[in-house]
Amino acid sequence: MTLADKISDGIKDAMRAKEKDKLEALRAVKAALLLEMSKSSDKELSEQVEMQVLMRLHKQRKESAAIYHEQNREDLAKDEEYQASVLEEFLPKQMSESEIAAVVDQIIAQTGASGMKDMGKVMGQASGKLAGKADGKLIADLVKQKLAAG
């Protein structure tokens, strides 16, 4: 079952349960997936592209919530956080910081990276290996920290 199918099923369930906020979040995902599909000539999106779209939407919700908290707009922040939590149901389980650090250590050992000049090489492999399972900013921070210390 593709992500688009899961989202469609979620929309139907939300409509039956009259969950307006959940329905709004799922419709936004479906619209983004349809928009992405219209950009390419393929009839279906690859699983990787679907995950990228979902992760982008999730990140936008988190960033918006943070901005609303800074501006003391708790009502709007709560809406964004709820939508982010709905999207999390469809994302793969996120890895912990220690698990990410272990993968980064392994990649550094494999590539023989010794300093900041090798960051691009390490980030390329780490981003590919951890796609969808970890936040890119966290990966970059850990790589910088490990290469600067090494």
From TrEMBL:
The cross-references to InterPro entries, in alphabetical order and at most eight, read:
Asn/Gln_tRNA_amidoTrase-B-like, GatB_Yqey_C_2, YqeY/Aim41, YqeY/Aim41_N
**One Gene Ontology term of the molecular function aspect:** carbon-nitrogen ligase activity, with glutamine as amido-N-donor
Q: Record's superkingdom?
A: Bacteria
Q: Which PANTHER family match?
A: ALTERED INHERITANCE OF MITOCHONDRIA PROTEIN 41, MITOCHONDRIAL
> What is the protein's name according to its record?
GatB/YqeY domain-containing protein
Q: Which organism is it from?
A: Cryomorpha ignava
